[in-house]
Amino acid sequence: MNKNKTLSSVILWSVISAAFIGPGTVTTAATAGSLFQLNLLWAVTFATIACIVLQEVSGRLTIVSGMTMGQALTKKYGEQQSSWLKFLLGGPVILGCAAYEAGNILGAVSGLNLMSSIDTKILTIIITAASAFILWSGKRNTIGWLMTFLVFLMGVAFFALAIDTSFSFQEYLKSSLTPQLPVGSELLTLGLVGTTIVPYNVFLGSGISKGQTVPLMRIGLTISVLIGGLITAAILVAGTSVRSFSNFNELAQALVENSGPIGGWALGIGLFAAGFSSAITSPYAASIITSSVFNWNEQKQRIVWIFVLLVGFAFGISEVKPIPVILAVQALNGLVLPLLTAYLILLINDPAIVPSEHRPSPFYNVVLLIIFGSVLLMGLNNIDKSVSSWVAMPTGHIMLISTISIALTGYLALKLFAWNKKNNGTRF
After folding, report:
1. Crossing angle of the two packed helices 199-208 and 3-20, in degrees rounded to 10
2. CATH number at residue 40
3. Full domain range(s) for residue 49
């Protein structure tokens, strides 16, 4: 396989790893390490594998069918039924991109604040303007190269922090492969999965896979997401050296105490790279969704990413956190990701859309169903948290949520089995 094409594919798919490693990932992974040491490292392993599988299915669907996700939904369900499906799947994800954009921008600003004394508002304007300039170019290669550089920065910064810990290789290996849930770790475990598998990345993967071959897509995707998973793991490992923190300044101070001045600088660089990359990929993903789902033209796509960026800038410059909006988006996305996963499973198994040689094997379908159950559990938990915040009721209905998740996963498995048996004889 041509090395230049392979490198180009890795650079292109680096957008995915840059997209899921944002300020939220830094906070969640560092907190997991601080509270539970290496005990939740396996969740990063699972989330990374699940991300690769879902992105591979999304990319494969687009490449082998020659259709965007919106076109595939229309072919399967017809114009009338698919129109509300597109709105249900794409609309909340675009709103999510806008709601979280302020956090991305302020995350980048927080990283710069750890290394300089420039006013926060000035830095917010600079980050927003730089993001707008890059997005206005609209060039996939330019964005891909920049994301590769930012991922490299994150990698160097967070690995510099992780390498200062004293765990053995055997401890890393055991914690990476052995599932365990210490008391009180359930929500953080779901959070680690949720910051890696995000709805807009599925659409992003579908959009950027155009013009690629399946083998090239798989190589570029796998390498890029594995690097992203390793960086998330490095953040978790770095967090093990900190007892507790409530903001990035406290985290930086704790790292300085443990690692010297390099600890603060490494966090600042890593946090800046994580925030800036997500500040670009979030509007970028929103514009791709309008293309791949709603089939909008380039002018409308540009309006969408400008909207997302301006919403983030407005909340960021005013330092007002859109908490009600974020809670609503969390609830909506709690529904969207499981729905999106379910429809991906159905579309990739449809003989009218995907040729037989590219449809999943029985084992691959089982893996997809496990991922569906996991994201459903995570999604229902987000809904539980959001609803509880609205009506001031206690959270933690984990047994009920688990029961619902198992039941719905079983239903999808039976439906898939019956459908494939009808279309393919005995194939699952």
Report:
1. 160
2. 1.20.1740.10
3. 3-321
Q: Give the whole-angstrom CA distance, residue 100 versus residue 382.
A: 15
Distance from C-alpha of 394 to C-alpha of 373, rounded to nearest angstrom = 24
pLDDT of residue 426: 42
User: What's the CA gap between 126 and 148, in Å, rounded?
Assistant: 21
Q: Is residue 51 part of a domain?
A: yes
Output the average pLDDT for the chain. 85
Q: Please write the tens of the pLDDT for every residue from 215-256.
A: 989 998 899 999 999 999 999 999 888 887 878 888 888 888
pLDDT (tens digit per residue) in 93-112:
888 888 888 889 988 999 99
Is 425 inside any structural domain? no
Q: Report the C-alpha gap between 264 and 259 in whole angstroms.
A: 8
Q: DSSP 3-state assignment of 183?
A: coil
What is the C-alpha to C-alpha distance for residues 159 and 166, in angstroms, rounded to an integer?
A: 13
Half-sphere exposure of 398 (CA within 13 A, CB side): 8
d(CA 121, CA 316): 8
Q: Is the pLDDT of residue 147 over 50?
A: yes
- Reference 92, options 202, 181, 172; nearest CA is 202
pTM: 0.88
Residue 347 placed within a domain: no
Is residue 128 assigned to a domain? yes
The total of structural domains in the chain comes to 1
- The answer to whether 149 touches 269, Cβ cutoff 8 Å, is no
Give the C-alpha separation, 365 to 216, whole Å.
22
